[in-house]
Amino acid sequence: MNTNEKKFYIIRTYSAGVWFGNIKSLKGTECVVINARRIHYWAGAASLSQLALEGVKRPKECRFAMTIIDQEGVYLPQTIEVLPCTDAAVENINAVPVWKIQ
Predict the structure, then answer these.
(1) ∠ at Cα 58 (52, 59), nearest 5°?
(2) Is the pLDDT of residue 53 over 80?
(3) Can you give 31-99 as a three-state secondary structure string?
(4) Considering the chain, what percentage of its residues have pLDDT values greater than 70?
(5) pTM for the structure as a whole
(6) Assigned CATH class of 8-85
């Protein structure tokens, strides 16, 4: 798969959950994601496909972690699904408040 570090993707893994970010590299099932944000729980999208195309309808109910901005990226060894995001979905997902413990 040819990837573009400026394009955003939803990446589903076997054991590390769902991630949103730019793909730095993808070889087989090994993926490195930069500007990586873990999608712990989403509300207002029926599936990851809808999330990648439209974003969410209930952003205040979502649990999206802080973005990891280290340029080494997040290593995801068991990638099982990669969905390209539309510009509308990227804007929507980036607007979801960070979910964290205060």
Answers:
(1) 75
(2) yes
(3) EEEEEEEEEEECCCCCCHHHHHHHCCCCHHHCEEEEEECCCCCEEECCEEEEEECCHHHHHHHHCCCEC
(4) 95
(5) 0.93
(6) mainly beta
